[in-house]
Amino acid sequence: MKTFPMFLQMAGRHVVIVGGGEQAAQKARLILKTQARLILVAPELDAELSAIVSQGRAEQVPDLSVDVMRGAALVFVATGCPGADHAAHALAKASGALVNVVDRPALCDATTPSLVDRDPVVVAISTEGTAPVLARQIKSRIETLLEPDLGEFAALAGRLRAQVSRHVPQHARRFFWDWVFSGPPRRAMARGALRDAAKLVKDSLASGGAAPVQGAIALVGAGPGAADLLTLRALRLLQEADVIYYDRLVDPAVLELARRDAERVFVGKTPGASSWPQDRINAVIVAAAKQGKKVVRLKSGDPGIFGRVTEELDSARAADIPVEIVPGVTAASAAMAALCRGLTERGVTDRLMLATAACKPGDPPPDWAAMLQPGTSLAIYMGVARAESILRGMQRAGIPLSLDADVVSHASTPRERRTRCILRDLPRAIAENAVENPAMILVSWPKSAIVEDQPMLQCL
Prior knowledge:
- This protein is globular.
- Helix 7 packs parallel to helix 8 (184-190), helix 8 (184-190) packs antiparallel against helix 9 (194-206) and helix 12 runs parallel beside helix 13 (309-318).
- It is 36% helix and 18% strand.
- It has a five-stranded parallel β-sheet with strand order 3-2-1-4-5, sandwiched between helices.
- The longest helix is centred in the middle third of the chain and has 18 residues, at 150-167.
- It has four domains: 14-112, 3-Layer(aba) Sandwich (Rossmann fold); 150-206; 216-329, Tetrapyrrole methylase, N-terminal domain (Cobalt-precorrin-4 Transmethylase, domain 1), CATH 3.40.1010; 333-445, Methyltransferase, Cobalt-precorrin-4 Transmethylase, Domain 2 (2-Layer Sandwich), CATH 3.30.950.
- It has helices at residues 22-31, 47-54, 66-69, 82-95, 132-145, 150-167, 170-182, 184-190, 194-206, 232-240, 252-255, 278-290, 309-318, 331-338, 368-371, 387-396, 426-432, and strands at 14-18, 37-41, 59-61, 74-77, 99-101, 114-118, 121-125, 216-221, 243-246, 263-266, 294-299, 323-326, 351-356, 376-381, 404-409, 417-422, 439-445.
- It is α/β, with parallel strands linked by helices.
């Protein structure tokens, strides 16, 4: 290493920034996150820096001198003028301070790393100035791994250390802290329930640091297919899971993001082959969680939209197992994004209806007249194989068959295909274009549309 990474103590010290423009403001934003006193050296400051001074968060010194730099924890030089930068660098060296001259590596004693800030948890990334873009990419990757509330959780642990020392025997402390940061408290914090996490830790301390092994279930939305449409929380849970139960429509690229040694169990329903009944799925995910495992039930799209999530929630709750739902990008959103349109449009469609054509056996057919009215966008899930019955039902409901319809299959993936036609020709368009599942049918009825029967097929 040409440079040695370390963290400088900032409390009770001051940092000098030479310059009054945007480059100086960038460094000021960084230092204001610390407990250092900030001194801005410039005869004039831009609006942002002036506001910082007027708020009492920094002091302005108009003239540069060795005295103002003496004893500084750091000096940043950000004038943007080569001559002024060199002069300020010389004075900073004369004062004995560490100096960083923006965009001039040869004049830097210290460089500013890319930071992942979860104060008091801080991760610094440096490429020694060779590849700043790579450092930012690494920062982005680490940002996805660390929960937003991790800093507050770490601070809570710090406040409880003395209590842990009093209540937990020394030989058991390492196990206790591993339970805090790897078990139910960490999972509660990760889903945004910091108070629940704190209660779990404090309750455990009250009972002498007992930390029973307990599993958990996460019902996770895998999105429409593209792996990069996963939420950050979904990605983190996949990387922490002991076992993953996944559906047929979950893209293999999504599973590649999971922890390598996680067990993966297919529980989908494959046409023409044996399938897992819902009660069996409920039983196996509960059984795994009872063994203390972190269980991810991975569902395509969003688990709360036609994903039969209620049965799995009820089973987990009945077994007193912690359970959470992690939303995913639903197929309707991905399909409209593929068409480069919005699901709603101001003044045109101000109502969005999500419907499934796959009703429970014995249920009445969908009430298309109630779902599709002027000013509505209708997204129909699982409807491709039922296009004929959908068309007949809409015709009986008096819906104009000249409305535009779009069918998007495999949205967001390399296999994506888009077909457009009028509603009357929907079954024929699906057949002629060999539309495959998974696919969404999207029908819009604009408020001001003048609709009339148009027998012409209009497929793309």
